[in-house]
Design goal:
Blueprint lengths: L1 H4 L9 E5 L3 H12 L4 E5 L2 H10 L4 E5 L7 H12 L4 E6 L4 H9 L4 E4 L4 H32 L9 H13 L6 E4 L6 H10 L8 E5 L5 H9 E2 L11 E2 L1 H4 L4 E5 L6 H13 L1 E3 L6 E3 L3 E6 L3 H6 L5 H7 L2 E4 L10 H15 L6 E2 L1 H9 L5 H15 L4 E2 L6 H6 L16 H15 L4 H8 L3 H11 L3
Parallel strand pairs: 1-2, 1-3, 3-4, 4-5, 6-13, 6-14, 7-10, 10-13, 15-16
Antiparallel strand pairs: 8-9, 11-12
Helix pairs in contact: 3-4, 14-16, 18-19, 19-20
């Protein structure tokens, strides 16, 4: 269907697999979908369906729930989930099997429809399922274009640190291994977690975030595990916890280092057993959840001080991703600035202003203690205050203007602990990036001769 997705003005033409042991009923369903322009393949039992799913490519699977066995339709669903990652499945059922179909929705089915079929309802349901597949396909194509420009799922950055991070993310995203994301506040840890989920086999299920900072043990336990009616004063109904809501998907625990010690033990038990028990209940519920955690604290040091359980630390640290602060990847700043300027200008329904060389230089040299979050706020502010098509230094937030003031004291923090050679190397790399590799313009921006720049390029091994 990919050749149709790129041009949404064309009618959708999906590849559909129809599975039904009644020849006439299968043909009726296939003909109803062919009239919409879809290409239908008909098979009549589970082995044939499994063979088609293994060797073919489908956008939609329509299967009878009960065929030679009562579990045949669910087995078709399981095979489709395993081999057709982007396909949707619709179950066809008799009235008495509706509870089974409702349970199948939790296993990834798109929907179900009861016999005898209302063909108009059936066609509408199938069309909605195909449109959902098309939308995901379009999003995947957009993400691919973003990846070509920015690296991975819209994550912006081409610095060596970000390229290394993105390469690791691409490796681990499809797996179920727990991930621990570390980094300062504001670096974008939740964005990394979301990107891992979006590119995993769980992407069609929920991504459920929870910030652990400032939550007491009782509140955190209720948030994670839920409760039953009457579990405590005010519990007037059953409530699903984050673990249950994330079943089949991803649970993201932000600031996990702030979790109370007693709560850490309860979290560990769930991770080891795969079962949660709601507050006030004795009935365990099995969940399949991928855990991604994040913290701005040193968990290894907290383990030594007895503030974080060592067994939990190793359980959540399947792979550790360190997201560098903005001051350690200054060459990414122009890309980020231009991206956010376009984003906020579009929100404000106005053209995106272009930073002057002096403005961009000040933005690159600033320390950004609040990291990407602070940069986002700064660019949003600049879009609002800009009174033309250019962003001048006067449009910068006061804290950035003050840090760049020639008469002010040297801001050591803005240098990020770099040596003079490293600072010079970054400045040259940044000037070349801003001028698309033009050495004459880069040298002019740096205030040096082109020959001097050429010598520096050779000295630092820059190309």
């Amino acid at each position: 269907m990919s050749d149709k997705v790129s041009n949404p003005t064309k009618p959708l033409s999906a590849q559909v697999l129809v599975v039904d042991d009644e020849d006439e009923h299968a043909e009726v369903m296939a003909e109803a979908l062919r009239r919409l322009g879809h290409v239908c393949t008909i098979v009549h039992d589970l082995p044939q369906a499994q063979d088609e799913l293994k060797h073919g490519q489908f956008d939609l699977v329509v299967t009878d729930l009960v065929m030679d066995t009562e579990e045949a339709g669910l087995q078709v669903l399981a095979a489709a989930r395993q081999t057709q990652r982007n396909a949707e499945t619709i179950l066809v059922t008799a009235h008495g099997d509706v509870p089974t179909c409702k349970a199948a929705l939790k296993q990834g089915a798109y929907d179900f429809i009861e016999k005898p079929l209302d063909l108009d309802v059936f066609r509408a349901l199938a069309q909605h399922a195909v449109e959902a597949v098309m939308l995901r396909d379009q999003n995947a194509q957009l993400r691919q274009r973003l990846d070509e420009s920015y690296g991975f799922d819209g994550i912006i950055g081409s610095s060596p640190a970000m390229r290394s991070l993105i390469a690791t993310m691409k490796q681990i995203a499809p797996s179920n291994i727990p991930v621990l994301i570390t980094g300062e506040s504001g670096v974008g840890k939740e964005l990394i977690a979301q990107a891992l989920h979006n590119n995993s086999n769980r992407a069609k299920q929920h991504f459920v975030p929870l910030n652990c900072a400032g939550l007491s043990e009782s509140i955190l336990e209720d948030e994670l595990f839920g409760h039953v009616k009457g579990a405590f004063t005010g519990a007037d109904r059953d409530r699903q916890g984050r673990f249950e809501y994330a079943d089949g998907g991803t649970l993201f625990l932000d600031e996990v280092g702030d979790m109370p010690v007693l709560m850490q033990a309860k979290l560990l038990r769930v991770l080891e057993s795969g079962e949660v028990v709601r507050l006030g209940s004795n009935e365990p519920k099995h969940v399949s959840v991928r855990l991604i955690s994040a913290t701005n604290r040193d968990l290894g040091d907290m383990v030594k001080q007895g503030q974080f359980r060592e067994d939990l630390f190793f359980r959540i640290k399947g792979v550790e991703l360190r997201l560098p602060p903005l001051r350690e990847r200054r060459e990414d700043i122009p890309q980020l600035v231009n991206h956010f300027l376009r984003h906020y200008a579009q929100q404000s329904d106005k053209p995106a202003p272009q930073p002057t060389e002096e403005t961009m230089t000040q933005l690159v040299q600033y320390a950004w203690p609040g990291n990407v979050r602070q940069l986002m706020n700064a660019t949003q502010n600049m879009v609002v205050v800009a009174d033309g098509d250019k962003l001048e230094p006067r449009h910068l937030p006061p804290e950035i203007q003050t840090a760049a003031s020639p008469g002010g004291d040297l801001n050591i923090d803005a240098l990020g602990g770099l040596s003079l050679d490293q600072i010079e190397k970054q400045a040259i790399r940044q000037a070349l990036r801003m001028h698309s590799g033009n050495r004459e313009q880069a040298a002019k921006m740096l205030g040096i001769g082109e020959r001097t720049l050429y010598r520096k390029l050779k000295e630092y091994g820059l190309k």
